[in-house]
Design a protein that fits this description.
By secondary structure, the protein is α/β, with parallel strands linked by helices. The chain is elongated and about 90 Å long. The chain has two domains: about 250 residues, Rossmann fold; about 55 residues. The chain has a seven-stranded mixed sheet with strand order 6-5-4-1-2-3-9, with helices on both faces. The protein has a two-stranded antiparallel ribbon with strand order 7-8.
Length: about 375
């Protein structure tokens, strides 16, 4: 059974805008995004990020560096109890200085290539899904893919395009967008029972007629219940692009990041029986006897197991930490030698002093390296 998803732009939707972001230190999560994302997850929506990254095509960073940035981005989300089901990026641009990435790819928003690729990879029903972003290109991509769309308030970047898109809804922030998804997600896209986008007060951008949002309290409530994980248990984002896949046409296969699996929480059983699945959990056989719809449940369990098998622990490696480990071992070795020289049949006091002095120097080096790592 196909799943429903919420597709999310990255810059201006989940993190602060930084034109052509090239370093991990520039990644800053927006305020109050963990609670709405967690609630969407609880209600059975997959969370998939789709982002244009023409900085690669412009030679500002490499794909390897971009993957490192996305690992750090996932880590920040995981620290707030949020785990993505997929992260897709498009490194291409039709006027790219780097020839390798110079093409008008179907993956680049406003084209829907990334959304369609994610739908094929994750078995997503696009008609039951949503696209949320702050740029006209996000809205065009979502509409072209058959999703309903929500345009967020512009946050000041000169790279954001606004003016010609017609979203189904407008929202001030992600929390309000999540309320809209949960309130109108049960209706099939674009029907007469769905409120239509209306012009805003300034007459330039489409908006949504003001309606009370009864789910806002529910979103705020989840803030205190978000799961916090320690850094040692964070999932590792694994991305592998084989040489064969690099040679394939860029408009057919996107460079994508396979999602790390979200740890199965206490809500897993509840999630399996939400929405349409709850309505279909019993089925009537030809004999008229109600039987559990085991086929649907087994399909969900199998999907969870497959996702769990892709889980990897998040790990950091640096030369600084390696050197600190080596010097710490040498410290222990020097202390051991000091004990040997001091407890033998003929104690060598000068050797003991030398070993202890060397151990003190090496311990100081170890502490210095660890402090450098933390900075």
């Amino acid at each position: 059974m196909a799943q429903k998803a919420v597709f999310l732009d990255r810059d201006g939707t989940l993190i602060e805008h930084y034109d052509y972001l090239t370093e991990e230190s520039q990644v800053k999560l927006l305020d109050r995004i963990a609670a709405p994302l967690s609630l969407l997850k609880e209600r059975g929506y997959l969370l998939v990020v789709v982002t244009n990254q023409s900085g690669v095509a412009r030679g500002l960073l490499t794909e390897k560096k971009l993957r490192s940035i996305h690992d750090y981005f996932r880590k920040l989300l995981a620290e707030k109890g949020v785990y993505l089901d997929g992260l897709y990026y498009c490194p291409y641009h039709p006027e790219a200085p780097v020839e390798k990435y110079r093409c008008d790819s179907d993956l680049r928003k406003p084209k829907p290539g990334m959304l369609k690729q994610a739908a094929a990879d994750l078995d997503i029903d696009l008609a039951a899904s949503w696209m949320i972003g702050d740029d006209d290109r996000d809205i065009h991509a979502g509409r072209s893919a058959g999703c309903r769309t929500i345009l967020l308030e512009k946050r000041g970047s000169s790279l954001v395009r606004r003016g010609d898109a017609k979203p189904d809804y407008q929202a001030v922030n992600l929390q309000e967008a999540a309320n809209i998804v949960l309130r109108y997600g049960a209706t099939s896209g674009g029907g007469d029972d769905m409120p239509q986008a209306l012009p805003s007060d300034n007459g330039k951008e489409p908006g949504v007629s003001p309606t009370p949002n009864p789910l806002s309290e529910e979103v705020q409530t989840t803030t205190s219940t978000a799961v916090m994980t320690e850094e040692s248990s964070l999932p590792e984002a694994s991305e592998h692009r084989s040489e064969r896949s690099k040679r394939r046409p860029p408009d057919r296969v996107p460079p994508r990041e396979h999602p790390p699996a979200e740890k199965i929480a206490k809500t897993s059983r509840k999630t399996i029986l939400t929405g349409e699945q709850r309505e279909q959990r019993e089925d009537t056989s030809e004999s008229g006897v109600h039987q559990p719809r085991t086929k649907t449940l087994l399909s969900q369990i199998l999907r969870e197991v497959k996702t769990l098998n892709r889980q990897h622990r998040y790990a950091e490696f640096s030369v600084t930490k390696l050197l600190a480990g080596i010097t710490q071992i040498l410290v222990l070795l020097c202390l051991g030698l000091a004990v040997v020289f001091g407890t033998g049949l003929e104690p060598r006091t000068d050797h003991v002093h030398t070993c202890l002095l060397l151990a003190a120097v090496l311990q100081t080096m170890t502490l210095t390296l660890l402090m450098m790592q933390r900075q």
